[in-house]
Amino acid sequence: MSETPDSAVRTYIEHHRAVFLDDLVEWLRIPSVSAQPEHTPDVQRSADWLAAKLEETGFPTVEVWRTPGAPAVFAEWPSHDPQAPTVLVYGHHDVQPAAREDGWDSEPFEPLVRDGRLYARGAADDKGQVFFHTLGVRAHLAATGRTAPAVNLKLLIEGEEESGSPHFRALVEERAERLTADAVIVSDTGMWAEDTPTVCTGMRGLAECEIRLHGPDQDVHSGSFGGAVPNPATAVARLVAALHDEHGRVAVPGFYDGVVELTARERALFAELPFDERQWLCTAKSYAAHGEAGYTTLERVWARPTAEVNGIGGGYQGPGSKTIIPSSAMVKLSFRLVAGQDPDQVEKAVRHWIAEQVPPGVRCEIDFGSATRPCLTPLDHPALRSVVRAMGRAFEKPVRFTREGGSGPAADLQDVLGAPVLFLGISVPSDGWHAPNEKVELDLLLKGVEASAHLWGDLAEHWRHAP
Predict the structure, then answer these.
(1) What are the 10-residue block averages of pLDDT along the chain, 467 residues in total?
(2) What dihedral do alpha carbons 405, 410, 411, 414 form, nearest 10°?
(3) Residues in Cβ contact with 315 at an 8 Å cutoff, skipping those fewer than 6 apart
(4) Which of 24, 217, 402, 445 sits at a 20 to 30 Å CA gap from 45?
(5) Which uninterrupted H or E stretch holds 367?
């Protein structure tokens, strides 16, 4: 009996599993920590290693793109089909700092396989999830007999994601013509749980600011001047207290303009997930859930915008008392944004609102950092359907839907290239991103290979360009 396409993919992966893992271990040994200047040569070495491996995989075009910071790797493998869609895979090859004394049970850059898990910094975030595409495309070719992928396949693997991607958007804008794509696949995310395969459909955006309020030109005696001159610390406290209304909604006028509301179907899909709020609170190290009224915890985290106080200070902080009116106070705020919100408009609304909160006699300075836009893919998008089918074939289970509450540079690709962003990731919460003993489940990693192998043919079959 001849093999089915799915069994042919699995057979190929099994036969090449050992070499694939040996290569990944070699890459994980490179401490490509973009945040630490002493590892700058290692980040370059990581990019060069990946470029060489992509050439070995079969990509006819592989380039290392320099930036003012760390290098990115670009690869391209055209399809022979003129009607094939073009797909860009995004990931990153830099990693978070790690040292044995941080609490690791083994050396973070000496990969260790134990109990079906590969432990190393970058195993899940993100080298493992980038690298599964190399074996995935080879399995796709072997199972279909093709000499080139069924789609026009591109990869962009950046080197500064763990440092905030400071040069990423400029790189995408500069190279937009080379990066043009019908869809972007992000493999820098995860699943709900090992036994619950999921596909993420969106990420929130992010805007951040620091507000500094200045009152007297110096600290002054509270007995001589208290109650008679404005106190910037009191002004900061009043501003923070006014940030939300009694229902947990952000009280900045215009903040919710354009917000794409959850549909009944999306709410139902979220509700299907086996969410244990008590366990979630344990993970959050918190004693109660809290937030905007009328929404579940998952809906608040994934699909509602937020305003959070990240830090607040002013005046005397030492032991005992110091009876002063402080000369200044500050607060740091962050805003998670959802589909439909414009970071520039949010900044304008926040600036206007803050100006109205500050009392006479208090001078205000506001600095906003660079913003990240939200991204959301409609549930009926053909590329999303392909990702779901590919995951379903790999896991042989129903695939459910999530979103990400955090933010990332994927939205820049959507914004600049005008292409929908899809997420194909196999990491699970226990993998410990950014934490000691980061690991990846090897069985899930190979499921990622399998899903990648199925995806290119499914996209080409169901999302073809008109001749």
Answers:
(1) 81 98 98 97 98 98 97 97 96 97 97 98 97 98 97 98 92 97 95 96 94 97 96 97 98 98 96 95 93 97 97 96 97 96 97 97 95 91 96 96 88 91 95 96 98 98 77
(2) -140
(3) 219, 233, 324, 326, 329
(4) 445
(5) strand 363-368
- Positions of CATH 3.30.70.360 in the chain: 205-259+305-368
pTM, 2 dp = 0.91
Residues in contact with 393: Cβ distance below 8 Å, sequence separation at least 6, in sequence order? 6, 450, 451, 454
Instruction: Give start-end residues of each CATH 3.40.630.10 domain in the chain.
Output: 5-203+375-462
Selection from 396, 398, 397, 445 nearest residue 424 by Cα: 445
**CA–CA distance, 61 with 86 (Å, rounded to integer):** 15
Other Cβ atoms within 10 Å of 332 Cβ, number: 16
Domain 5-203+375-462, second-level architecture:
3-Layer(aba) Sandwich (3.40)
